[in-house]
Design goal:
Layout lengths: L5 H10 L6 H13 L2 H17 L1 E2 L6 E2 L5 H4 L4 E8 L2 H8 L6 E5 L17 H9 L8 E4 L5 H14 L5 E4 L15 H9 L2 E2 L1
Parallel strand pairs: 3-4, 3-5, 5-6
Antiparallel strand pairs: 1-2, 6-7
Length: about 200
Amino acid sequence: MAPSEPLGDLVAALQRLPGIGARSATRLAYHILKTPREEADALCAAILSVKDRVTYCSICSNITAEDPCAYCLSPDRDSRILCVVEQPENVGAIEKTRGFRGRYHVLLGAIAPLQGIGPDDLKIKSLLMRISASDDPKVEEVIVATNPNVEGEATALYLARLLKPLGVRVSRIAMGIPVGSDIDYTDEFTMSKAMEGRRDM
């Protein structure tokens, strides 16, 4: 199939998505081709809506359609406890447990020198500003919930060194999550136990 053909272009575009190889992209392209026009239009509209309306929260850097996000605005959440995660999808994994009632801060990555990602590339400065801000209620504990891999551990240690002098308790989620896996693939029970068994750093 020539790459200039519309179907070939769709396969090539789908193949650029993470986790989608040539066979999956081809299968998806043929599925889209067979679906009614209304469903294809709905898919296109949903993609454009996400690109047009979804942004990052100016406080916690989570994804949101309204700024600030619902987690930052909710009066029911405990602003004294802050959970730091790597990516917005990690917030969803923790929320599934229905056990955490604090607020979040999303770093939008982890320290990974081999990939050229350093502390300045993450939302660490805004985290420090949130903790030291005088107009916010005092943050008493920061739970570091980065992934249990080399990059996540390096990020956790770096944050602990920065945060402890500020007088806040710094804890790390317990390692109920398998080492080398991602938080967003963790089941609710394991995530709940990891939050309960967090430890001081």
